[in-house]
Design goal:
By secondary structure, this protein is an alpha+beta fold. 36% of the residues lie in helices and 16% in strands. Strands 2-1-4-3 form a 4-stranded mixed β-sheet, with helices on both faces. Strand 1, helix 5 and strand 2 form a beta-alpha-beta unit. The protein is elongated and about 50 Å long. It starts with 5 loop residues before the first helix and ends with a strand. The relative contact order is 0.19.
């Protein structure tokens, strides 16, 4: 586990440090490295933009925690309004039309046995799962990339 860059710590209110440390520890090593570059490099990188990608990875087994997978409530709203990138498939969107879909996204996993509560044949969530013929769940994550 890498330490949070000092330049990042200096812009965080002291009362939020614990939340940010928890968030940092949940990031992948790749995302930590990208953010370290952003906050540790000098001026030419300091003004560089960071792009967020809402991503998914098909998994055999879901591991979820009891709390929301995405650390900021408003971030959920961002996620449901942008495309989902699954590296090996087309671009998708997630549903926010019902409580079951919302809870799946908040937990960070669309389970392989997800059933559209509206029995919608064009359910966005089922389309994502059906890409793998319903054999795998989809674990959601966020990837940070420096914009070139």
């Amino acid at each position: 586990m890498k330490n949070i860059p000092n330049k990042l710590k200096t812009v965080i209110p002291i009362q939020e440090i614990t939340s940010i440390e928890n968030w940092w520890n949940k990031l992948s090593r790749e995302n930590q490295t990208e953010l370290e570059v952003l906050y540790n490099e000098e001026s030419e990188i300091q003004n560089q933009m960071v792009e967020l990608e809402f991503c998914g990875e098909y998994v055999e087994r879901e591991i979820t925690e009891s709390e929301d997978a995405f650390w900021i409530h408003q971030f959920y709203e961002y996620l449901v309004n942008h495309e989902l990138i699954v590296d090996e498939s087309p671009r998708y969107y997630v549903c926010s039309a019902n409580n079951e879909a919302e809870q799946a996204i908040r937990k960070g996993v669309i389970r392989k046995d997800f059933v559209c509560p509206e029995s919608n044949k064009n359910c966005l969530m089922r389309k994502i799962i059906d890409f793998k013929k319903g054999e795998k769940s989809l674990k959601l994550f966020v990837r940070f990339k420096l914009v070139e």
